[in-house]
Amino acid sequence: MADTESSRMDAFTHLGDRVRSALSERGFATPTEPQRRAIPPLAAGENALVLAPTGTGKTETAMLPVFDSIHRAEDRFGISALYITPLRALNRDMRERLDWWGEYLDVEVDVRHGDTTQYRRGKQADDPPDVLVTTPETLQATLTGEKLRTALSDVEHVVVDEVHELASSKRGAQLTVGLERLRDLAGPFQRIGLSATVGSPAEVGRFLTGDRDCAVVEVEAGTNVEFRVREPEVTDEDEALAGKLATDVEIASHVRTIRDVVAAHESTLIFVNTRQTAEALGSRFKRLEEPIGVHHGSLSKEARIEVEDAFKRGEVDGLVCTSSMELGIDVGRVDHVIQYGSPREVARLLQRVGRAGHRRDAVSEGTVVTSHPDDTLEALAIARRAVAGEVEPATIHHGSLDVVANQTVGLVMDHGEVGAREAYETLTRAYPFRSLSEAAFRAVVRELSSNRLLWLDEDADRLEKSGGTWRYFYANLSMIPDEETYEVYDLSARKTVGTLDERFVLNFAGPGETFIQRGEMWRITEVDEEEARVEVTPIEDPGGEVPSWTGQEIPVPAAVAGEVGEMRDVATTQFERGADRRAVAREFLPRYPGDEYTVREALDPVERQVEAGAPTPTADRLVVEGQGRGVVLNAPFGHEVNETLGRLCSALIGQKTGSSVGMEVDPYRIELEVPGRTGPSDVVEVLETTDPDHVEGLLELALKNSGTLKFTLAQVAAKFGALKRYQGQGRFGADRLLAALEDTPVYDEAVREVFHTDLAVDEAAAVLEGVQTGDIEVTTAREHTPIGTGGRSSGRELLVPENADASVVETLKERIRNDRVILACLHCTEWTRKTKVRRVPDQPRCPECESTRIAALNPWDDDVVTAVRAKEKDDEQEGMTERAYRSANLVQSHGKRAVIAMAARGVGPHNAARIIAKLREDEDDFYRDILEQERQYARTQSFWD
């Protein structure tokens, strides 16, 4: 039955006269759907999780009952309500949004976060506001301040905004314990969570409340959104545009399509998946002098605010942005959203497109612009699932031990000293830690005690402050990992432009090199290691590197990848019956929001697969193919399952052959670079013979050799106080750190985090079981198939021009000339010399025995020289010796050219031989190929042993 006007007004009748008067003054005639359904239980003091699209008044839904409760209170002493947001920028927006209500209702609202001045903090401590808007990290600090603890003892309401963002992170796990510490101080309080969409509402409700009663009010996001997925069709205009942009015609068509969609609307957000893409796309629009800005987290705060304000004022029509703009930062009204490339997840698409159409009952409209078949089919599947409300569940960090360590120290800070049993009970009231064993807790406490972060009185079973408690706690308010960044400083304007990741600076940045940031080209003048600063000047230049931030790639869920497999399977059946691609594409249009051209192009590899007589990979049919050292396992299981299967295959094949196996994974295929005399049959053998029950143990053994575990271990060790910050988190000492911490909770947590973040052990084990029971068919192909070669590696996101420009090539040449190599004679095995590449003769020769069998090794490869000289060798030394002989053979055949190739980062003898073998007319192309291999290595180095 349809609601009557009076029944729609019922929600506001639960609020007091003064609040209803404020509603009339503010123009709230009738409640929105979430307000109608959520205000009654909230006004009654119930805990609730409110899920509704952006722009439907969720903030007022939560805060009107809270304001009403505060306004009606006879006595107000301390802080009555906390409003917690995951971003400082959201704090600023919330303060502005809530100020009017506060003034009308005589309720004081204030903000506190890391940038709040000391003067303002003092005022808040002496005269606390009624409502404090803050972040999870600042809550940690306020819980330990003497005056603020007193103020917080009066808290009766806590609102957590964008709760989905916190539910899947360690920041959120930390917050849940923080809320239990607050409950110890203030007693029970009302908890309200706000989010646009989550796939597991009941689970997130338990996360929010500590598994206490929680009403879930959900307004389906998919009912108020419209999507269109399109792959741009190249036009005559794109030919001219490509010349102007110094790029290829396909990228020109993407730029033109986005430009045209922006021009057809008043204000458009253009979401991309990486900061690299944001910068590259922004630079194209800047070159065309289009009114489109760039916004992402590595720009300085001033630069972000500047472009946000310009967008609000209408000075720019579009904003190229990353996830920094997902969470509702106020940039005024948005009437359209473009997603460039597949959004990878249903929740992400709904969150982003939900930013558009901020009017009551307005439909949020979004266009997804795709670039290759995987991308398109994936986007179509995600768009369909979004409309159907098939959202991924939150991936809560259960039992993260570094959070236990952090919050145990927090409990000691709260009380000065606390009983171990009392601390354990507080921790386990928080939902992510409800299953934490007492033994695991005590192991963490002993680790903290050994690191002198607290004092454990074994006899009294009490935890007390030690000399390192205070310093550790305030240095670790956040669970966000500390990663070194370099400030980018514009010498001409004398201001900070943004930041660069340390790995980019070490691998690529040097005086004279160029890169893009804030949509502009910069040339590096100097890299100041001491100050962690890159000094730059602006240039006008079409080529250059894009800043290589290492933020984790958004993983595509198994369900989405599986649907792509189903779409291919359906198309395969029709192609086998003789249908043409146009007719097959039309069959998809009633179910998926694309146009005929877009779907037709996406199905091209499937049609060619059928024409080649190759099987189409699905969740029930795996196809293993290969030629030479390249083997592809086609498996539409999503990133995490494929990552797990890939690591398993690379570890077991590597163990069998005694050689490293390279790996690159996307949601639909696992690409392996295997040793000689190895091929598809070895991958099939792993799938058919590996015990599913042993997957976890095998992977943990394999992880010990991986850079991923060592990097994670360093981050976790810092959170345990086991790694002093001044030691940094570089590669030095990683093996020793691993050996020292292997039997500690630090190591256990690092392994747990890698498994949680990157892998899907149970699902991968289920695949092996399916293969071994015959439920999943495994077939092989002797050659690479159209689908097998269609991965993301062949359709990379918009990064750099096709050719590096002359200055980048020249800088690479100069860097390699000045790099050092070890030259080692493999004939007499006595002569070695460490020298710069530029001093190496055209044909190196041993001065002792005149042999030309000279290996060119990395400057840190002294152990390889030792291995070559050893009379009896173990397996590891045999592998080193084999690599040295391959290097010497290459130098003997190609002289200094081979030395140059092998001096590059990530270019061993195998890749060097491949680079040298290519026929070229231009020597610069030789260096361009080296540069491309270095980029490939930078993208995939975490997958190599």
TrEMBL record:
Residues 257-399 form the Helicase C-terminal domain. InterPro entries: ATP-dep_Helicase (IPR052511), DEAD/DEAH_box_helicase_dom (IPR011545), Helicase_ATP-bd (IPR014001), Helicase_C-like (IPR001650), Lhr-like (IPR017170), Lhr-like_DEAD/DEAH_assoc (IPR013701), Lhr_WH_dom (IPR045628), P-loop_NTPase (IPR027417). Keywords: ATP-binding, DNA damage, DNA repair, DNA-binding, Helicase, Hydrolase, Isomerase, Nucleotide-binding. The keyword Nucleotide-binding applies. Pfam families: DEAD, DEAD_assoc, Helicase_C, WHD_Lhr. It comes from the Archaea. SUPFAM superfamilies: P-loop containing nucleoside triphosphate hydrolases. GO terms for biological process: DNA repair. One of its GO terms (molecular function) is ATP binding. Gene3D superfamilies: P-loop containing nucleotide triphosphate hydrolases. Residues 39-216 form the Helicase ATP-binding domain. Belongs to the Lhr helicase family. Lhr-Core subfamily. PANTHER family: ATP-DEPENDENT HELICASE LHR-RELATED (PTHR47962:SF5), ATP-DEPENDENT HELICASE LHR-RELATED-RELATED (PTHR47962). This is DEAD/DEAH box helicase. It comes from Haloplanus rallus.
